[in-house]
Amino acid sequence: MTLGEYQTLTGTTVASGDVARVTATIARTQAILETLLGFTLDPTTATTNLYNELGKTTQECACPSVDSELQNPDAVVGAYRLYRFNENDQYFHIDPFSKINAVKLVFIRDGDTPNGITLKTYDWADLRINYGRNGFAKYIEHCTDCLCSCSCTDCVQLAVDAEWLWTDELPTDLQYLWADMVTWYSNPKNKGIKSESIDTHSYTRFDNTPPENEPSNLAVLKRYAGPYGSVAVMPI
Questions:
Q1: Do residues 228 and 157 touch, judged by C-beta distance below 8 A?
Q2: Residues in CB range of 190: below 8 A, 6 or more apart
Q3: CB 151 within 8 A of CB 61
Q4: What's the CA gap between 224 and 80, in Å, rounded?
Q5: Mean pLDDT, range 115-125, rounded to an integer
Q6: Do the strands 193-198 and 156-164 form a parallel or antiparallel pair, or are they unpaired?
Q7: Please, are residues 145 and 120 in contact by the beta-carbon 8 Å criterion?
Q8: Are 208 and 184 in contact (CB under 8 A)?
């Protein structure tokens, strides 16, 4: 988010004396938002490839130690990201994406991550993806009979080549939440303590609820959070 985008979303003009503080707060809240969501919003790192395919086993699901001959690797279309794999899961929970290019079961070699060998490339007929209202999805449903069965399954990961969500493509509801966070964190008066006086009595109350902790905004965060996000939830 740029300063100009923040002003457009909030309908306010940041005073010249506040520009540096608000700009710094945009960077700070981006880091908070990335922790909550579990993935980067930086466009330069969002397109970084995190899996380098050294080759593919000639026999599907064969362990690399068993299959010594490898097929040539596939070309990367978007960018690979790696996720935990559990053969008992009906859904693969990954970061939000607008398009999937490839879903693979891979074996990462010790000491040279992210280099690895692909044990299985999933057929599109075995996968189901339901895109949401904003054109993004974060769950891939797979058929129960299309999993791998080999001795090294416990040591594999899921590699997904996709077009990922990042700052220039943030859905509107997430943009407004981010703008609210910038407003809240850039206000020096938001210390969480407020003192008030009524007639002859005075009292102090605590009000330390940043926007991302409000129930309605938590629902927005959970809608887009990936599996590594601090607010991530599994599908019901």
A1: no
A2: 184, 210
A3: no
A4: 19
A5: 90
A6: unpaired
A7: no
A8: no
Count how many Cα atoms sit within 13 Å of the Cα of residue 43 in the half-sphere of its side chain: 5
CA gap 82, 103 in Å, rounded: 10
Helices (H) and strands (E) in the chain, counts: 5, 10
Supply the Cα-derived Rg of the chain in whole angstroms: 22
Q: Which residues pair with 160 in a beta bridge?
A: 81, 103
pTM (predicted TM-score): 0.85
pLDDT per position as a tens digit, 147-190:
666 666 667 899 999 999 888 888 999 999 999 999 999 988 77
Instruction: List, in order, residues 6 or more apart from 94 with CB less than 8 Å away.
Output: 81, 83, 138, 139, 140, 158, 160, 162, 226, 227
Torsion angles phi and psi, residue 83, rounded to 5? -140, 160
